[in-house]
Amino acid sequence: MKELTPTTLRPPFARYAHGVEIPAGHRLIQTSGQLGIDAQDAIPPDAYDQAMICFGNIAEILGAGGMSAADVAHISAYVTGREHMAGYMKARDAFMAQTGRLPSSTLLIVSGFTRPEFVVEVEVLAAAV
Prior knowledge:
alpha+beta; CATH 3.30.1330.40; 5-stranded mixed β-sheet; two-stranded antiparallel ribbon; 7 strands; globular; Enamine deaminase RidA (YjgF/YER057c/UK114 family)
């Protein structure tokens, strides 16, 4: 995949690319939105820990399809308030740290999720040969 961040645009606000080109012939995995709840139904109170669960779930889903974080082309994330952005972004950066590349990214502030204790939801689009 090729990162697309033209120098004629303002640089991204954080560690992401403005766009990502997926070459022809790649398989795609689109995950459902993952919430910060673990396999034992525990929901940590803070955004970072919830986001780490989200990315852990995403890693498992990608692994089931023979992919990893290195194959992520785009991340969409949703938080319930600006105060949760830093925790989410720290977890996102940790998830992508070993890949040596940047995905495109969207981060939205939403009014809430199915249960009030959820503060983060994350989904990804991944592509691999």
